[in-house]
Design brief:
The protein is mainly alpha-helical and about 130 residues long. The chain contains five helices and two strands, in the order ααβαααβ.
Length: about 130
């Protein structure tokens, strides 16, 4: 029985040795393009993972509405995309800092429902918690 195992192992090893030069030749010519592709795939996977992680983390985050940048507003507040985040910042620059949550309703595109969704996430002082 052990002789049969040794024979199978030897045949398998020989098969690998016979085919490996072909594998090595093809892998060295495409090595740089394959490694570039693998690197890009890794970056894409990391980005997708970080987006999922951010969404889960941001579920519990809060944002200082008076100091947050566009990206922080978009990531922290539900229903706030690029356009509404920019509108918040433009309003803040033109009219000064927000004093109450209701002041946000003065920003074009922000209604009571959106404010209600985000009430727990909005702060007026301190650092952003992302």
């Amino acid at each position: 029985m052990s002789n049969i195992r040794q024979l199978i192992t030897t045949l398998f090893t020989l098969t690998l040795l016979v085919t490996s030069p072909n594998l090595l030749a093809s892998s060295t010519t495409d090595k740089s393009s394959n490694s570039d592709k693998i690197q890009k795939d890794i970056e894409i996977s990391k980005e997708k993972l970080s987006k999922k992680t951010k969404k889960k983390t941001l579920k519990y985050s809060s944002v200082n509405i008076n100091s947050a940048n566009e990206k922080e507003l978009m990531l922290s507040l539900k229903g706030i995309g690029k356009k509404k985040a920019k509108a918040i910042i433009d309003y803040r620059k033109k009219h000064g800092q927000f004093k109450t949550v209701e002041d946000l309703a003065k920003v074009k595109g922000i209604g009571k429902k959106l404010i209600e969704k985000n009430k727990q996430r909005i702060r007026f002082e301190g650092k952003n918690v992302l």
